[in-house]
Amino acid sequence: MGEEVKDQGRRGFLTTAAATVGGVFALLGAAKLPAAAKTELPPLSEGVIYPDPALCVGCGACEVACGQVHAEHGLSGVPRIHILIKDGATVGISIADAKTTGTGGYVPSPCKQCPDPECFVVCPADALQIDGKGGARFIDESVCVACGKCEAACPYPVDGVQALTEEPMHTKRIFFDPKLNVYTKCDMCHWRAEGPACVGACPVNHNIKLGLLKSDHLCLDIKRADETTYKQIL
Amino acid sequence: MKSFEYQAASSVGEAVVRLQQAKGTGVPMGGGTDLVGLMKNRVVNPELVVDLKVVDSLAYIRRQDGGFALGAATTVADVQFSAELGTDYPLLRKAASLVASQQIRNQGTVGGNLCQRPRCWYFRNTLTPCLRRDGTYCSAVLGENKYHAILGGAGCFIVHPSDLAPALIALDARAKITGPGGSRVVPMEEFFVLPREDLHHETILKTDEILEEVQIPAPMQGAKQVWLKHRIRQVWDFAILSVACQVQVRGTAVSDIRLVLGAVAPAPWRCHTAERLLRGSALTPENVDRAIAAELAKARPMTQNAYKIELAAELMRQALLG
User: Fold this and answer.
1) Residue B249 in 3-state DSSP?
2) Where are the alpha helices (DSSP H) in chain B?
3) Is A217 buried (19+), middle (13-18) or exposed (0-12) by CB count in 10 A?
4) Residue A7: pLDDT band with limits 50, 70, 90
5) Residue B298: which of A58, A166, A204 has the nearest Cβ?
6) CATH code at A43-232
7) Of the candidates B317, B318, B320, B297, which has an alpha carbon nearest to the alpha carbon of residue B309?
8) A204: closest chain B residue by CA
9) Which of A35, A56, A194, A223 could disulfide-link to A106, CB 3.0 to 4.6 Å?
10) Predicted TM-score (pTM) of this structure
11) Which strands, in side-by-side order, build the sheet including B269-270?
12) Closest listed residue to residue A60, CA positions, set B203, B144, B157, B266
């Protein structure tokens, strides 16, 4: 999308979509309605954080960098990505071993940037927004009323034990910040020129890029948010 | 070293004002034994250095509220040789006497020792990426990490190098912090932060605040105080692992205990789990081992530092039962 496209909230989007559907309806007639109605879905996110649990060493860099970068940007410092631990996992295990066993023992669980985000639909405050450039679904914390409807609507639970705190985690992929009294979620760092902070801070990624580790893909990657990718994210 | 302005502060108030005016580009300096090295290596590049060691009113050891107060500019050697402190706090004297070399103890200050930066070789080498220093990524995760953290690491795996910090936490000391808005006193344990709280700093000090004083309460009555430090070189070296412990036994049961590990985490590690299990229990080998195992169950060793788990267990065992 072009630079001139601005972020749009649910109401703004639906208003635009309704006008578009109305126009199409008038031109093509009632028989075309089902096809035209598809335009009510928001645009796909161009990217989604794509983790590979087989490569994750559980160092927590993604979690920490996420919180830090958002806090520096004046947003909630609650991490939007969390690493869940499996029994016996240690930091910095050999990637070769991880590939043999099929998993490094850690599962990073970011937002899936759903094609039809239910959080977007239920927000009463228009806080759920879609970035006009990359399509990232994000929460405008300045208008969030902390009602929790987005979290309740998120269809993807995160259940497990957090690697960094060893505390159980039974939540969705939208998180509450009690300090700021807002909800927050992965926004793909859409305001950041360098891209998502978690992907940039991952030491495994850098070792792969430097050729020190052999892998045909990165540990934390940004993939197109198509249906295949969406289904593969744990 | 990049050029900088040197300011010999005449008072704490002046130091705070100068740091405030520098808007984050100034740093306070105690003895400079750590800071100057960081500046020479261009890890830290301040435009203003405010020297606190020349503030006479910051170098003192005095009795206060049944305990002691140490000015931040008091040298480590003064702590080491203070007869009064040594009588009440043998673990602090021992910790001070094992800080680096005598020359460094003569120059280094209590405040500087508590606020020193990590010794991680990736942090100190500007040619290698470091998540703490410049926010790229942590080289230690898949690199050389035999001296790194087994507890509390997240993204960054430094260990806090101070010897005095674990000792002071074991003694329930408090830190008096002074800034533009006045002074506040916080428990020494809360003076330090883990990476998940602040990735780029080891303490809660803001850029225009200084650590002015360390306040130590009276020791636990009749308590055993222990300080153990494991290092590779027996002459002078940073700790591979250290244990500071103050334990009070009434009858056969532990009535109070403060157990702190050094060099295992990005901040001095207070063993709350072990303390909770030992409080009210007899100090038997079985109970001690159970408490140690529960504490170290949280450890997440890296590729080369799993040995620290056994080392920590053994040192804690020696501290509690020895």
Assistant:
1) strand
2) 12-22, 35-40, 76-81, 83-88, 90-97, 102-107, 110-115, 121-124, 164-170, 188-191, 272-278, 285-296, 307-321
3) exposed
4) low
5) A166
6) 3.30.70.20
7) B297
8) B142
9) A56
10) 0.88
11) B224-230, B241-250, B253-262, B269-270
12) B157
Name, in order, each residue with C-beta under 8 angstroms of B36's C-beta and a sequence gap of 6 or more. none
C-alpha B180, offset from chain centre? 25
As a whole number of angstroms, the distance between CA B202 and CA B191 comes to: 9
How far CA A197 is from CA of A162, B8, B200, in Å, comes to 20, 40, 15
- Amino acid symbol at A138: F
Pick among A55, A64, A164 to test the B interface (most B CBs inside 10 A): A64
Q: Do B196 and A164 touch (CB under 8 A)?
A: yes
ipTM value for the complex:
0.85
Q: What is the DSSP letter of B116?
A: P
CA A174 to chain centre: 9
Which phi and psi (to 5°) does residue A38 adopt?
-60, -25
List, run by run, the mean pLDDT of 10-residue segments along chain B (322 residues): 94 96 96 96 97 91 96 97 96 96 96 97 96 91 94 95 98 98 97 95 97 97 96 89 97 96 98 98 97 94 92 98 91
**Tokens encoding B281:** 């229990």
Contact between B199 and A213 using a beta-carbon 8 Å cutoff: no
Q: Which residues contact A206 (CB under 8 A, 6 or more apart)?
A: B129, B136, B137
Return the domain boundaries, chain A.
1-40, 43-232
- In chain B the domains, ranked by start, together with CATH numbers, are 5-50 (3.30.43), 224-321 (3.30.390.50)
pLDDT reading at A158 higher than 70: yes
